[in-house]
């Protein structure tokens, strides 16, 4: 699994399309749901774009602890699917929303906190992590 992060509109999507042209895309930005079962997919390479939007949905529906546990289960399922065949790969794209001013509203703080924890889980479990700034990647793991 690979995790790609960076600021909004910094070239993450273009970088991923260039480096993983064969991948099937699933995008939270297009309103597509968080994938829990990869059995329905046609491709062996999958891009999951907009993790921060899916974490926002989770933080609105569950307590932060429930959302973290749910996320960890989803992540384990993704890794299991990827490890079933050597040609499978999952590329996860998430915009960094954890910097800057801490939101005043509790629900926005919970979303930001959950997203930070999700990104930590991804970074720990992924074989490669890249940060994209202004279209240039920096590999920080792998």
Would you give an account of this structure?
- The structure is a single chain.
- The chain is α/β, with parallel strands linked by helices and 142 residues long.
- The protein has a single domain (2-141), classed as P-loop containing nucleotide triphosphate hydrolases (Rossmann fold, 3-Layer(aba) Sandwich), CATH 3.40.50.300.
- The chain is 42% helix and 23% strand.
- The protein is built from four helices and six strands.
- It has helices at 12-19, 51-61, 64-83, 106-125; strands spanning 2-6, 24-27, 45-49, 89-95, 128-133, 136-141.
- Strands 2-3-4-1-5-6 form a six-stranded mixed beta sheet, sandwiched between helices.
- Helix 2 packs across helix 4 and helix 3 (64-83) runs parallel beside helix 4.
- The longest helix has 20 residues, at 64-83.
- The chain is globular and about 45 Å long.
- The model has no long low-confidence stretch (mean pLDDT 94).
Quantity of strands, as a count: 6
At the fourth CATH level, what is the homologous superfamily? P-loop containing nucleotide triphosphate hydrolases
Average pLDDT metric: 94
Number of domains: 1
Largest sheet: 6 strands, mixed
Q: Return residue spans where pLDDT drops below 50 for at least 5 consecutive residues.
A: none
Specify the CATH class: Alpha Beta
* Structural class by helix and strand composition: alpha/beta
Q: Mind telling me the C-alpha Rg?
A: 15 Å
Helix run count: 4
Percent strand equals: 15-25%
Give me the CATH architecture, please.
3-Layer(aba) Sandwich
Percent helix among the residues? Answer: 40-55%
Can you tell me the overall shape? globular
Main sheet: strand order: 2-3-4-1-5-6
C-alpha termini separation: 11 Å
Order of helices and strands: EHEEHHEHEE
């Amino acid at each position: 699994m690979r995790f790609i992060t960076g600021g909004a509109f910094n070239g993450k999507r273009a970088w991923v399309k260039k480096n993983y042209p064969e991948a099937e895309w699933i995008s939270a930005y297009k309103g597509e749901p968080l994938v829990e079962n990869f059995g329905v997919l046609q491709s062996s390479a999958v891009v999951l774009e907009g993790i921060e939007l899916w974490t926002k949905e989770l933080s609105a529906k569950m307590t932060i602890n429930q959302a973290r546990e749910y996320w960890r289960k989803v992540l384990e399922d993704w890794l299991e699917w990827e490890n079933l065949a050597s040609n499978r790969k999952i590329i996860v794209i998430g915009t960094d929303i954890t910097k800057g001013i801490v939101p005043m509203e509790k629900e926005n703080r919970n979303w930001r906190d959950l997203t930070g924890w999700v990104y930590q889980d991804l970074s720990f479990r992924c074989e490669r992590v890249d940060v994209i700034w202004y279209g240039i990647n920096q590999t920080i793991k792998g």
